[in-house]
Every structure is written in structure tokens, then in C-alpha cells.
């Protein structure tokens, strides 16, 4: 298990570990999104027959993966909840 050091204020120091994990997650999301577009028909054939237009959900979630990568990689949604609700 990784140990996260406590900073001078008693809060966990999330320096390099946060940045590395954020960029690794963003990298994996872009790979998943691109793979969805590369194998539209193959992944669409895995969906059950009762789902109409099987290629649409595959393309939609491929776009969602890419959009979430952009959000996580550029810290658009990086505002803590306490700042949003204040």
C-alpha cells in the first residue's frame, strides 16, 4: 500500500502522486475511447439484440471516454465540492 505523507497543515500531501495518477487515468480513458471507435461493429455485436442501433451506444460511450479524459487531464472538474456548495 502506498503511504501518503502528511503536510505541515496535517492534510495529505497530494503532489506528484495525484498528478501521475490523474495523467495515467486520462491516458487509459483516451485509449478506451479510441478503441471504441476502432471496433464499432465488433463491440456493437456484443450488445443484446433488444438494444436498437447497436453502433450508436458504442460510439456514444467512446465519445464519453474521450470527453472524460479531457476533463480529468485538464482539471476542468477539479473543484472540490465544498467550494461548489459554498
Descriptive report:
By secondary structure, the chain is mostly helical. The protein has a domain of 50 residues. α1 runs antiparallel to α3. It is elongated and about 45 Å long.
Which key features would you list for this structure?
4 helices, 86 residues, mainly alpha, elongated
Number of helices: 4
Q: Give the averaged pLDDT, no decimals.
A: 77
Bin the strand percentage.
under 5%
N to C succession of SSEs: HHHH
| Main sheet record | none
Class based on secondary structure composition and strand pairing = mainly alpha
Q: Work out the radius of gyration.
A: 18 Å
Number of strands: 0
The general outline is elongated
Which residues form runs of ≥5 with pLDDT under 50?
none
Kindly state the percentage of residues in helix.
Answer: 55-70%
Intertermini distance:
34 Å
Q: Outline of this structure?
A:
The protein is mainly α. 62% of the residues lie in helices and 0% in strands.
Topology:
Elements: H1 16-38, H2 40-44, H3 55-74, H4 81-85
